Amino acid sequence: MGFWAIFVKELKELLRAAGLLFFIVYMFTVEIYVAASGINMDAKNIAVGVVDYSPGVVSTKLLSSLRLPEFRAPVFYNSQKELFEDIKNKKIAVGLIFDTDFEKNIALGKESKIELLLDATAASQGYFAYLYLQNIANDTVNKNIKDGSLGVSVHKLFNQNSDSRYYMVLNELMSVVTLLSIILSAAVFVKEKENGTWDLMLLMPVSKITMITAKVLSQSFVIMVGVFVGCGVVVFGVFDTPLNGSFWVFLALTFLFSLSSAGIGLFIAAIAQDIMRVGQLSMMIMMPILFLSGAWTPVYAMHPFLQFLTLFSPLRYYIEGVQSIFFRGAAFVDLLPYFAGVTVLGVVLFIFGTRRIMKLF
Q: What single string gives the DSSP state of each residue in 129-158?
């Protein structure tokens, strides 16, 4: 009885806190939408400059393949110096230089070269532009070689259209779940300190464990409602993200992860005296967790020591599990390592956080 009384009390408190309620709705809708639509790793609308010392059929065909949305119409220059100056001044992102023997060497079946200049300050855009141009050049040149050519057949797995928005929208959803699980689970205790009701809370005829569990689960319930809203409105509604696995398995993994993150929130609640410090400490703790999760850099591309540290990040198992559910359609038995990782780390974090907060009772 006491458990449900505290559970319902915290939900009512949240409904009365208009600012916090607005923040939660914003994070699960607008924030996810902006991140997924505004952060694009693909090459888009790239300005191309050209110096063609051997104008001919092949170079013309190649340049005619540079079209929107990836590339703007090429801008022609009379010299490499002019082209380089515009790249330096960020007017042009990609420069193509065809030498005088380019057309003749292709006709004779000899080695032909195209000099490519890239503004690598935007590293990911430059890399994708290089790949696009490489494919376009190979395709164009192969069609003009008399003595056969090399054909490459590409099969894209799990994300056939290479739409980075699917990846970004899920990553942002998981980041929001992480941040709010930490902040909300800490805030329910810190608000008692700020409002001067901590001593009144201790007088309630319920055990410490019951009170902590009820408060934490009430916030996990809020997180799950937010996940429903975020998935329905943004993930599936706006971006039509494919789901090849079970949505209910995804929710189960999300619930376990929210409890895991709540353990961190309990630790923060034990040392923070106001909501401002909760926000500051949450960001300090979340950043290393996020960087070690594989959300931005694949785990296999990290330094070996950092790869070892990722084993202690519950977000790594959550991200890999969610991606396997959505994109690979993994069966539940294949997801057990991710469930085990989130559960084991969650139990450790929850016990650690609970012990710290119980010292205040």
A: HHHHHHHHHHHHHHTT-SS----------S
| Contacts (Cβ under 8 Å, ≥6 apart) of 288 | none
Helix and strand totals (H; E) in the chain: 15, 4
Q: What is the pTM of this model?
A: 0.76
Residue type for position 74: P
Cα(291)–Cα(312) distance, rounded to whole angstroms?
A: 12
Residue among 270, 313, 275, 276 nearest 294 (CA): 313
Residue 93 CB: number of other CB atoms within 10 A? 24
Chain length of the chain? 361
Divide the 361 residues of the chain into consecutive groups of 10 and give the mean pLDDT of each group.
Answer: 80 85 90 79 80 82 83 89 84 87 78 81 73 79 54 55 76 91 90 75 76 88 94 90 91 93 89 83 84 77 84 90 88 91 91 83 67
Distance CA 53, CA 102 (A): 8
Interhelix angle 164-195/2-16, rounded to 10 degrees, is 110
Look at strands 75-76 and 114-118 and give their pairing. unpaired
Q: What is the DSSP letter of 303?
A: -
- Is residue 352 a contact partner of residue 327, using CB atoms and an 8 Å limit? no
Note whether 6 and 207 are within 8 A (CB).
Answer: no
Contacts of 246 (CB under 8 A, 6+ apart): 325, 332
Q: Which amino acid is at 173?
A: L
pLDDT of res. 151:
46
Specify the pLDDT at position 168: 83
Q: How far apart are CA 278 and CA 271, in angstroms?
A: 9
Residue 148: predicted pLDDT: 45
Give the count of alpha carbons within 13 A of 229, CB side only.
17
